[in-house]
Structures are given as C-alpha cells and as structure tokens.
Specification:
heterodimer, A: mainly alpha, about 5% strand, B: Recoverin, domain 1, two-stranded antiparallel sheet, 4 helices, about 65% helix
C-alpha cells in the first residue's frame, strides 16, 4: 500500500516536472498515459479539457496535487463500486 | 495493459477490501480492521497504530458520516492525506539533494 501511495505522488511529480501544478498539457499527457484503460475519454482532447475544468476547484487553469488526488479518488471509488457490484453478482 | 497509476489504484482497492471483508460488515472497515490495515500496510509511514488513542482519533477523523465504520470513500481521505504528506516529504528530499 505504501508503494501505491508513492506511485500516486511520483506520477504527479514526474508529470508536472517538479512544479507545483500541472498545466493543461501536462494534465492531458498524464491522463493519456495513465488512464487510457479505465477512461474511455482519455484520448478525447475536449473531454480531457472538460475534466480539467471540472477538477479545477480554485479556477486557476491548472491542476494542483490536491485536485489531481480528487480525480484519483473519484476513479478509485468507481472502480471499487464496480468491483463490489461484480462480487455481489457472483455470490 | 494497465498503467502504473491504474495498478497502484487497483492495489489500494484490493487492500481496502481485503481488510474490510475480515469481520462484520464487509465493504467497510471496523476500528479493529483499520488498525490491522495500518499495522500491516502502513508500518513505515505511520507509527500511530501502536497508540490506541491515535487510532481512535484517526478513525473519528475519517468517519465523516459517523456510523463507526470507515467506508471506501472515507478510506480515500486517508490515502489523500498520506499522499499529501508524502509529497511534501519528497519535495523536501529533492530540495536537500539540490535537484529543485
């Protein structure tokens, strides 16, 4: 579990190249590279832009580490729900 | 082929459900399950699992709906909190190494 948390952190840091926030390009690259198998919209520029705006709680046009964690948490939640639903079905 | 980040998320989900299914309501962590998870999975990040009062406090902080259990959404807050702490630590480390 600790290594998973490290991955969450280092993925953001390497995408933002050590900067505080991800700009639009950095965010787009991260989504394409990391979420292409769980997000259908990962390769649609418009959808990614929409997603970025949705996350941008402080409306500064960038994605902060906290805003990125919101996305990760949201996706993890829906993956977990799907898993629970699948388990309930097979019972 | 899942990415590194997807694999990490998958493993967080698996860890949660592994402990959550141990006793009582499956799908949520009881206090004991949370303590076991912290003991076994977070032994390098956290020392507070050894202190019953600290476990109680973490449990209380996480349990936003006050049902005495930690559901997945509440568990995500723990992951977010640890990630933020880990990020700050990592940045300090980079600064010390002179890379930033």
């Amino acid at each position: 579990m600790e290594s998973a948390i490290k991955t969450l952190v280092t993925t953001f840091i390497s995408s933002s190249k050590g900067k505080e926030n991800l700009d639009s390009k950095g965010f787009k690259n991260l989504v394409e590279k990391q979420f292409s198998s769980i997000l259908e919209d990962a390769n649609s520029a418009d959808k990614v832009k929409e997603m970025q705006q949705g996350l941008d709680a402080n409306a500064d046009g960038k994605v902060s580490f906290g805003e990125y964690l919101t996305l990760v948490g949201y996706l993890a939640q829906s993956m977990s729900d799907r898993k629970t639903a699948a388990a309930a079905q097979s019972d | 082929m899942p990415s590194e980040l997807e694999t990490a998320m998958e493993s967080l989900i698996k860890v949660f459900h592994r402990y959550a299914s141990k006793e009582g309501r499956s799908g949520t962590l009881s206090r004991r399950e949370l303590r076991e998870l912290m003991e076994n999975e977070l032994s390098n990040f956290l020392r507070s699992q050894k202190d019953p009062a600290a476990v109680d406090k973490i449990m209380k902080d996480l349990d936003t709906n006050g049902d005495g259990q930690v559901d997945f959404e509440e568990f995500v807050s723990l992951v977010v909190g640890l990630s933020i702490a880990c990020e700050q630590c990592y940045k300090m480390h980079l600064k010390k190494m002179g890379n930033m």
